[in-house]
Amino acid sequence: MFFNSLPEHPTEKPSRYPILYSAVIFPGIGQFQQKRPTVGTIYALITLFAAILFVAMLASHGMTALKDAWNAAVGQTDPGDALAELKPVFQAFAFLIAVYVANVYDAWYAWYRINLAWKNDHTPPPLTPSE
Questions:
Q1: How far apart are CA 96 and CA 113, in angstroms?
Q2: Which residue has the higher pLDDT, 45 or 129?
Q3: Rounded to 10 degrees, what is the CA torsion of 15, 30, 111, 51?
Q4: What does the longest C-alpha to C-alpha distance in the chain come to?
Q5: 8 lies in a domain?
Q6: Residue 117 contacts by C-beta under 8 Å, 6 or more apart in sequence?
Q7: How many structural domains compose the chain?
Q8: pLDDT-derived band of residue 131, with 50, 70 and 90 as boundaries?
Q9: Distance CA 94, CA 81 (A)
Q10: Domain membership flag for residue 79
Q11: How far apart are alpha carbons 79 and 66 in whole angstroms?
């Protein structure tokens, strides 16, 4: 994505574990494993912010949405009220998922570039295609 600098010339076949760590444990850990601590810190902080935002939206809108959904189920209110109340929760969740996907893509792309450098005489490929 935005932070694709190689830490050093690879001397051995790169591991895919950093991608797995970023996908399963916590976003940013894979970047630390790839010796990119600045990027790992940025992804970890943004993910932490997105997770806190999601939990805050769920806490502030979730109970009202459940009450509206219950009232809609028994026919007292319009079902659209519960959906309208859940919109901020869905938006915060979409932001969290977008950060997660960007993080996993960044870890994969850094691994891909290191793998290409390892295969091609240990010189990193350019960031953009040459003309």
A1: 26
A2: 45
A3: 140
A4: 70
A5: no
A6: 6, 9, 10, 123, 124, 125
A7: 1
A8: very low
A9: 20
A10: yes
A11: 11
Domain that holds residue 90: 17-119
Q: Assess whether pLDDT exceeds 90 at residue 94.
A: yes
Residue appearing with tokens 């209110």 = 77
Structural domain includes residue 83: yes
Structure confidence by residue, pLDDT tens digits, 97-129:
999 999 999 888 888 888 887 777 665 555 555
pTM above 0.85, yes or no: no
pLDDT of res. 118: 76
Q: Is 131 exposed, middle or buried (0-12, 13-18, 19+ CB in 10 A)?
A: exposed
Place of tokens 């992804």: 43
Q: Is residue 54 part of a domain?
A: yes
